[in-house]
Task: structure prediction
Amino acid sequence: MEANRLGSAKILKYRVVVDTNILLQAVRNNIDLFEKLADALVAKFEVIVPEVVVRELENLRSKGRHIERREAELVFKTVISKSRIVPVREQYSRVDDAILSVAVDYNAILLTNDKELRRRARLLRIPVARLNIKERRVFVEGVFD
Result:
């Protein structure tokens, strides 16, 4: 971290946009996303959940298989309740497009394990992060002070 002239640490605040899959993977593997993001970012941050992701989770909670319903419910209790839910400006035919637009609108890091979504984010110069399940760590790339 950079220190200013008075020697105090510069405090950054990041925004992190998440997709549905990363939320389910974290719950499935009993990983605290907030703790892992804090370790990776070493700064203040807020988790942003696009409304389209909330709708996908609500759909799983009501119409999914038993395990999906339980996991979706756990996501609402552990992550959604502590996150900022934001609308998507436009209608998109694909959820991934909506998630990318939110990341751009909020100048945020995109946290996803979806390889194609990370590739598309990099093309748009959106910083990306992924959750390594084995190591139980979040890896961030493309964030520069």
Summary: DSSP finds six helices and six strands in the chain. Residues 16-141 form a domain with the Rossmann fold fold (CATH 3.40.50.1010).
